[in-house]
């Protein structure tokens, strides 16, 4: 989908540009530390700058973000360990803690970053209270608080912008299928067409296994993405797939018959049962529905979700 690729490209370019700017800033810090003969801090700054540069190059070469953020976790753990343990050895390391909140909120989704930043901030505050006198405590905590507030505001604005961009392109960036807003638009048009042409309009709801609901966010989204790929392989050229806000997939099948719907469900189940990629793929729940003239968009969507929930 062109809109989905456009959305992913914008997010990727923003991350690459931020990494390059951060690498440039750390390079300047490394040069200044080297001029002042603080070789250890210069080496650390240069190391992080090189890591960010390599990460940006990898993103450009791959053309997409990794589904598993191993690189991000390694980089942020290295920075956190350096700042927490480094403050016990030298006061110069304190300046690095101001970089951490913004970096955490940039690398991870908002809810994950909030938990991680809260844990790090608690450990950092305890370290500052135990290692520094009252005068330095006030300066450090005030400056860190300002940086933390700025990072949270940046993350909130970025998160809202991301949602706004997703709404504009009407595509879910995780599964690369259309979202619920686009389903409402398309379904309204197809309902009008079906009424005018006295044609059959079918829908198929697909609910993910209940066991997936307890997984971590990265693992859950990875499974959603895989399921959407398998689902799209079973569609006809003019069928369309959507992901609802409740994580239920809906396939819209215009000009369809019962045989077409049966073939879709059978092909999907055969495909999933033959795949050993993830556990529980064969436990998805399916519900078939047909539009009738007295239905409206919201009623039809709610009925599909209710029927799927009744299967639990």
Polypeptide structure, described:
It is built from 11 helices and 5 strands, in the order αααααααβαβαββαβα. Helix content is 67%, strand content 7%. α5 (100-107) runs antiparallel to α6 and α5 packs parallel to α7 (134-169). It has helices spanning 2-35, 39-62, 70-86, 94-97, 100-107, 110-131, 134-169, 180-197, 217-233, 258-273, 297-310, and strands at 178-179, 202-207, 240-243, 249-253, 285-290. The chain starts with a helix and ends with a helix. The longest helix has 36 residues, at 134-169. A 5-stranded mixed beta sheet has the order 1-3-4-2-5, with helices on both faces.
Structural class: alpha+beta
**Tally of strands:** 5
Query: Major sheet: order of its strands?
Result: 1-3-4-2-5
Helix count equals 11
Low-pLDDT stretches are none
Order of helices and strands: HHHHHHHEHEHEEHEH
Q: Output the radius of gyration.
A: 25 Å
Number of domains: 2
Average pLDDT over all residues = 81
Most strands sheet: 5 strands, mixed
Distance between the termini: 33 Å
Could you tell me the strand content as a percent range? 5-15%
Helix content: 55-70%
What is the approximate shape?
elongated
Transmembrane segments: 12-34, 40-61, 73-90, 102-129, 141-157
Domain GGDEF: 158-309
Keywords: Membrane, Transmembrane, Transmembrane helix
Pfam family, one: GGDEF
Briefly, what is this?
With 312 residues, the chain is an alpha+beta fold. The protein has helices spanning 2-35, 39-62, 70-86, 94-97, 100-107, 110-131, 134-169, 180-197, 217-233, 258-273, 297-310; strands at residues 178-179, 202-207, 240-243, 249-253, 285-290.
